[in-house]
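Researcher: We're teaching a course module on how sequence relates to structure. For the next exercise, students receive a sequence and then see the predicted structure as tokens, so they can try to spot secondary structure elements on their own. Here is the exercise chain.
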Amino acid sequence: MYVISILDTTIRIAQRDLCAIRWTAQILEEAQRNLIANRGDEERIRSRFRALRENFEEYEITGYEVLVHSMTCDQKDRHVLAAAIRGGASQIVTSNVRDFPQESVVDYDIEIVTPDDFLTNVLHAHPAEVAAVLREQAHALKRPEMTVDELLATLARHGVPNFAAEAETVIKATTPVQRD
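Model: And here is the predicted structure for the students to work with:
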């Protein structure tokens, strides 16, 4: 079964210039490895990550490696903070907020936010546009086909419940009433 990813939604939103996203080859490798370990379907996941690398080359940050040794966040995430600094990011979006203590990011003016908070903030800033993205995403899904409500339920289960709930409200408010 096709697994809806928060990344899919985020990329669609970024393609509309509603937010900026960046990554490194190392970040993508870790994400791919974790998805395979947690969800299986190795070939499909590898194929999706190959497509990300090929179609969104401009999102990749390079040249951050020289900064890694001076980072003071959790050792396994120092490459993430170094890349954020090199890429001029104002936020790091992660479910592992505790790995980035405030004292490790304060000098760089970088905020640590969860995926749920990040997407909810983008929704608040661009409600109609994000609603349109979600409608288009649901319409594009073929295996399995999904309604917008099913897409939102899937996103909620995968870690962005507040975003999904608020998006549902926005979508209902921006959907024209159909008359018989």
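Model: If you want an answer key for the exercise: The chain has two domains: 6-111, 118-174. The beta strands are 91-93, 111-113.
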